[in-house]
Amino acid sequence: MDAAYQPKPGDVRKGRETLQVQGIFGSFALVRDYYYHPGKKQGHYPADDGLGLEVSYTPALAKLIALEGADEPTYLKAERHLEQTGGIAVSARQIQRVVQRVGRSAQQWQEREAQPGPCDAPILYASADGTGVPMMPEELKGRRGKQADGTAKTRQIYLGCVFTQHQMDPEGNPVRDYESTTYVSSFKPIDEFGPLLRQEAVRRGMGSAGTVVLLIDGAAGLENMGRLCFKDCVQIVDFFHALEHASLVLEASLGKNHPAHKKRLSHWANRLLKDKVADLIKQTRKECAGKAQAEAVEKELGYFVRNVQRMQYGTFRAKGFFIGSGVVEAGCKTLIGGRCKQSGMFWSQPGAENILALRCIHSSRRLADFWKYRLDIKSAHNDALSLTA
Questions:
Q1: Helix/strand/coil for 36
Q2: Phi-psi region of 154 (alpha: psi -120 to 50; beta: other; left: phi over 0)
Q3: Coil, helix or strand for 261?
Q4: pLDDT tens digit sequence for 182-223
Q5: pLDDT of residue 8
Q6: Residue 59, burial from CB neighbour count under 10 angstroms (0-12, 13-18, 19+)
Q7: Cβ atoms 321, 337 nearer than 8 A
Q8: How far apart are CA 290 and CA 285, in angstroms?
Q9: Which residues contact 139 (CB under 8 A, 6 or more apart)?
Q10: Sign of the C-alpha dihedral, residues 148, 150, 153, 159?
Q11: DSSP output for 289-350
């Protein structure tokens, strides 16, 4: 491999160095050439890239380390798991370094340009939600939050998912296709995350699906994402979030802990399921006209006024659509919360983003594709510059 390598202009061969390479079944010494570029102040081991080594680990062991580090709730548990199940000794600190090294590439892979894929499903869903990840103090400087003093303890990360539906159960409820869900995540603002989710939908075959449905919770940022990135799709506001906001309307109208609150909320649920959101808005305004609470009620009604077309739940159910965003909310709890929101955890943004990218790829059953991409990138470092006439 070293004999076949063609140095790039500026590379200076500095001799041969020995690396102790660790694999799943043991270790071995690798003696290979080292090149240095004085202008770029960068070193390069052609054999390392040709073999796909990660630091001093073989590709097979690096895959296992990255999987354990991302899958287990802590790096320490990953260290113990590797030792107890495979007799592989890798420290928690080294596992973290491998995860972060590979995770940067994983996040880039999530954001790659999409090639339109096929889809034979009658319905394809896209859904998104945001959740806070606890951050180290230096990551939160100057950021506004929900604490009493106006500061923040977390930074919001967005999680998006795409899945398909072919059928309904005997009771007429929609059924998500088995292992059809794929995920993407990012700390980027919503105006950058929206196109990322759209790219995933394109990759999954949005252009050839029978119907494309966007399921969101009605937050202003997600509403705007729907208008910009999914404007020609059916858009549905999660029914359970709608009920939460209906409860806020009733609190503003009746006051907190009113004895009729539960009954009135049930009335709202029944009417919403019959496409009567516009009637509920009109009725509530009429009841509060001229009263002291009218302004507060109108403020809470704004959620429904903005989303009337996204709340035609009777029509959506008749067409066999999901009306709840439980898939992406479960993803927020398991993919993000299960790894980054454990007791006592505080993250840097790259640290959380990189490990969550690996978790998303794993849950999307795309690890093999990602590692092929990763090995191709490393091999490309050895490509000679194209000759010009």
A1: strand
A2: beta
A3: helix
A4: 999 999 999 999 999 999 999 999 999 999 999 999 888 998
A5: 86
A6: middle
A7: no
A8: 10
A9: 155, 347, 348, 349
A10: positive
A11: TTSTTHHHHHHHHHHHHHTTGGG-HHHHHHTT-----HHHHHHIIIIIIHHHSSTT--B-HH
Separation in Å, CA 203 to CA 120, 196, 250, 335, 361: 13, 11, 42, 21, 14
Domain range summary for the chain, segments of one domain joined by +? 12-110+348-380, 123-236+327-340, 241-306
Q: Which of 133-137, 333-337, 379-383 has the lowest mean pLDDT?
A: 379-383
Contact 181, 92 (CB under 8 A): no
Q: How far apart are CA 323 and CA 213, in angstroms?
A: 10
Note the pLDDT tens digit of each residue in 44-82: 999 999 999 999 999 999 999 999 999 999 999 999 999
* Nearest in space to 357 (alpha carbons), one of 63, 72, 131, 108: 108
Tokens of 13: 């061969």
User: If 0-12 CB within 10 Å is exposed, 13-18 middle and 19+ buried, where does residue 262 land?
Assistant: exposed
Decide the pairing of beta strands 154-168 and 174-176.
antiparallel
Distance in angstroms (rounded) separating the CA atoms of residues 225 and 158: 12
Closest CA relative to residue 16, chosen from 26, 3, 6, 25: 3
Cα(389)–Cα(386) distance, rounded to whole angstroms?
10
- Give pLDDT tens digits for 215-230: 999 888 998 999 999 9
The angle, 0 to 180 degrees and rounded to 10, between the axes of the packed helices 92-110 and 75-86 is 110
* CA angle 160–163–167, rounded 5-degree value: 150
Q: Kindly give the residue spans of alpha helices, DSSP state H, lying in the chain.
A: 46-51, 59-71, 75-86, 92-110, 190-203, 220-229, 239-254, 261-272, 277-288, 294-306, 313-318, 326-331, 338-340, 349-363, 367-380
**38: its two tokens:** 């004085």
CB neighbour class for 93 (10 Å; exposed up to 12, middle 13-18, buried from 19): exposed
* Among 197, 69, 26, 196, CA closest to 126: 197
In the DSSP assignment, the letter for residue 143 is -
Cβ distance 364 to 181 under 8 Å?
yes
Cβ 136 vs Cβ 346: under 8 Å:
yes
Residue 387 confidence (pLDDT): 44
